[in-house]
Amino acid sequence: MGFGWWKLFGAALVGILFFHGFCGAETVPNFSFMHNATTAPDISYYDYIIVGGGTAGCPLAATLSQNYSVLLLERGGAPYGNPNITNLSAFGRALSDLSPTSPSQRFISEDGVINARARVLGGGSCLNAGFYSRAATDYAREAGWDTRLVNESYQWVERLVAFQPPIQAWQSAVRAGLVQAGVVPYNGFTYDHIYGTKVGGTTFDLEGHRHTAADLLQYANPTGLTVLLHATVRKILFRTKGKSRPLAHGVVFRDASGTKHRAYLKSGPRNEIIVSSGALGSPQLLMLSGVGPAEHLRAHNITVVVDQPLVGQGMSDNPMNAIFVPSPVPVEVSLIQVVGITHFGSYIEAASGENFAGSPATRDFGMFSPKIGQLSTVPPKQRTPEALAKAVEYMNSLEAPAFRGGFILEKVMGPISTGHLELRTRNPNDNPSVTFNYFKDPQDLERCIQGIETIEKIIESKPFSKFRYDYLSLAALLNITANSPINLLPKHANASRSLDQFCKDTVMTIWHYHGGCQVGRVVDYQYKVLGVDALRVIDGSTFIYSPGTNPQATVMMLGRYMGKRILDERLASDGN
Fold first, then answer.
1. Of 177, 306, 329, 457, which residue is least crowded by CB atoms under 10 Å?
2. Which of 20, 211, 261, 512 is catalytic?
């Protein structure tokens, strides 16, 4: 064949996935309210304190600042002006940057799947695939959201960050293959979640510049908002004396130099602290602050404020599995643009490209790079610096055809399988321990199998025929994928023959993990933390299931939606 195709898969998959792993716009917004936390006073007072300037925190802060004083604390830096984030040619460098100021922080779940969490203003919207698609109307109804305000909030987000992608030959072939495979009808371009095949939105504009949740701060009232960067919140402060329930009234945070600062709520019955630190960060911060399973907190010498055993429970990560299809002809570099929304509970998406990162000297392989420990053909204890260096050297020697082709992936909706999160240390900069239990529920596995079978139909379809080699059978393509370094789980020899084993062996994250502070379990339907006062959690940690095909649209919407709800309720109360 000329190449060992399985060796090519890892490099190509990396390039395709992380072609779009950069963030920022061509011009840097002049945010007069954005400062390094080292400039913060020792003590300050605000109507609202938001912990986490991510996908939910930015729109929430922008909204609340219209009428009240807001402090937004972000542990990372700004997405603007950093060439490793902004420049397309450097897309992989941000993800392989292991420095303390990197915009992404790698973690490995107890399942053995390598993952990443954001550490930058704008959160995961700075690191994801850019796909923009709303949640199903049923999802919003089951969440108890007001449909009119949901639609208005999506539109508020879309005015700044969502665009229609240009569809070229490879994506068009996938789209036609999906329809031929029975994922019908074809619904054209839409942000809406509708059964069938569609072209979704993207957060990349026509010039290829990414727009993120940080851009939504353009809506903010600059006199009402203070954004502090490199501000790591150590814990939430509670008043208990003379209170029937603990009352959140402030936070302790450290700046980049290690100096401690305190921010307090101004006096007033409706002022609140809102945690928007993501599915890992929000349950972690609640636990560090004394809200969580009492026995676990005491084991870490944390004073228990509220024994809440459900904090950190219900952790889920939607499993993703892909088939790489080497192409005999050049293909366009494309992001996630087309999606098939099936009735059996799997979402089919695709991406393609070649020559993703220029010359071998500058080539990087994103979250599948051996530079960041992604070497799944070697057991974890054998992933020595020498083994990683050898893998880097090999990757850099790959020829250009290794980057020609694309992958078609399926993501399991939900999922039903859940795990849990626990503290490892009391340092908020350290990753907690998290277990997702991929495919623990057999229905998740069945959905993956049906998704892979649908991908096989697309590959075998007439519209896709020009983008595959005739001599590479489906079994060969499965072997290419199954033998690639994707995760840290042990491989099985029968991966190409058993689709359930293929799903288990090649499982990856699509970075849609959620849970840990779920509605009805840790927070109520107004996102108020149960058992305490003046504290909410508003982000993806509250989700039972991931919304839509890709959650970022709904997380941004939720920040705006809850900001409006809080403003409207407070203004109505103040008017009485």
1. 329
2. 512
